[in-house]
Predict the structure.
Amino acid sequence: MRIMNIKIRNAPYVLVLTVVLCLSALLGACGKKAQPDGQAASDLPPVKRIVFEEAPDTIVARYDGGVVGAGDFAAYLNFMQLIDPSGQAADGTLWEQILDDYVGLHILAQRAKAQGDVTDSKDPNSATKDSYDALVSQLKAVYGDRGYAERLQALGLSDDDVHKFVSLYAAADAYLTHVKSDDELRADYEARKGDYTLTTVRHILIKVDDKRGDDEARALAEELARRAKGGEDFAKLADEYSEDPGNTNPDGSKNGGLYENVMAGQWVPPFKAAALSQPIGKVGAPVKTDYGYHVIVVEARKEQSFEDVRELLVGEAAREAYQAFREKELPELIGERHIPKAKAS
């Protein structure tokens, strides 16, 4: 459970960076350490190269501006296996969606090229090269140097293939990150300036659930608010009474109900309103959300400027643009497609 109103959308905006972060999370969640040079990660699932029954030049999709061949699509699926150790790309039931996404990347890359926004991942001075380096570095951290080389070979991929797909993502990103002008981004910022304010709060959550009804939860929250206002240590009260899982660290230690420098827009609406309006350092009246009742003290607020959050605004605009493209435009741009059959091993 979270009291933050975080929305995650699947979009290729800075996709290589997204993959890097996911791989970092995989290392942390699985308790893995970066593999030493030459040592492969032995506890990751094996991969099996995807090869289709159709000849590589068999067309599997036609779209406004080009085609996708079976060999190219197989290479893309194998690349997806490389960057996603969960192996979802090997699930044939997902290939229709993956093929549509792949076509969409090509169309967006074409639009970027028409605008002159394409850079080469082999150009040492390009941001695309930086993305390639970051991805390969993180893949080697997961697989080990030798393991990474072995996976490339097992999947029938070359370094040139990795460059090609990274450049494709980067080109799609380049188009999406220019869908709004600075004036439009600034208007978005002004409309939601409060959402970007950094808030540092302590809070105590008292749940409403099958074990505790609304009246009982509110009464306990009000009692804790009175005790905190009366001078009791808020952090100690939070550690003793708060039912927010986020207040407990993996090692079992507590945080005193502290959340530091969280953008207000990430809180659910009633909590956000309190975080933006309560006097600094004062214990507020309990606030109700879907999670229960919150006793909140705001320790600090800092408004961020447009320049501070410009890249975040670009990312939000890009994700919205991709979602609209994927849902509204892309179906009309794909003329035909069929999903090839994998060759039996």
